[in-house]
Write a structure and sequence with these properties.
Length: about 90
């Protein structure tokens, strides 16, 4: 997943359809965050793998924050139609 981060939109990162309801997005975020949460990989702390896991976790958290808000999601969808994959 790390390699794809800069080439995937938030929907693809979370594995949901663009018209997915909030509950589906939330469930996808929780499922994926359990895999990548830095606290689950403390034994790797200080390694490049840990840094990559942390980067993935931050990006999926970013996706959740954007897609969980009605207005931020609408803004993101508008930007996505113009090819913008991330909100800054």
């Amino acid at each position: 997943m790390y390699v794809q981060l800069d080439h995937e939109d938030y929907y693809k990162l979370l594995g949901v359809a663009q018209d997915a309801e909030l509950g589906v997005v939330r469930d996808a975020f929780h499922r994926i965050s359990l895999l990548y949460h830095p606290d689950r990989h403390l034994s790797l702390r200080g390694s490049s793998i840990y840094d990559r896991l942390n980067t993935v976790y931050k990006r999926i958290t970013e996706a959740w924050k954007v897609l969980s808000g009605e207005q931020t999601r609408a803004d993101y969808d508008l930007g996505l139609s113009d090819g913008v994959l991330r909100m800054t």
